[in-house]
Design brief:
By secondary structure, the chain is an all-beta fold. The chain has no helices and twelve strands. The chain is globular and about 55 Å long.
Length: about 120
């Protein structure tokens, strides 16, 4: 019988799983469409919530030009603040929520036109 520990995290390369077992450490990068910010990109023009939470601050508005990595909004979840960033350069087509709104997991937060 052996014991294993599992850890999940994110880095600038994306999400990963770390497994510690019998003195050895293994790290597996997850290629699931999830960015380092935790937000899912649904196709090329939508950013989805990585988990349920509350929108604390919206930092962009419709029609605004954005660059990859630019903060879009702050989501409070699990007693932590998560900055959701742009997955690509483009223009904001629609911001779906405003500060104070509660959002469910997997909902579209922002639509981006990246053409």
């Amino acid at each position: 019988m052996f014991r294993a520990q599992f850890g999940f995290g994110n880095s600038d390369i994306g999400f990963f799983v770390r497994v510690l077992c019998q003195g050895y450490a293994y790290m597996y990068e997850l290629d699931s469409g999830i960015g380092a910010d935790g937000a899912l990109a649904a196709g090329d023009n939508a950013v989805l919530t990585p988990m349920p939470g509350k929108v604390i601050k919206v930092m962009v508005s419709n029609g605004e030009a954005i660059t990859k990595g630019q903060p879009l909004l702050i989501l409070e979840a699990m007693k932590m603040e998560h900055t959701i960033v742009a997955p690509c350069d483009g223009e904001i087509e629609a911001v779906m929520f405003e500060a104070g709104d509660l959002v469910e997991d997997g909902k579209v937060l922002v639509n981006i036109n990246n053409e």
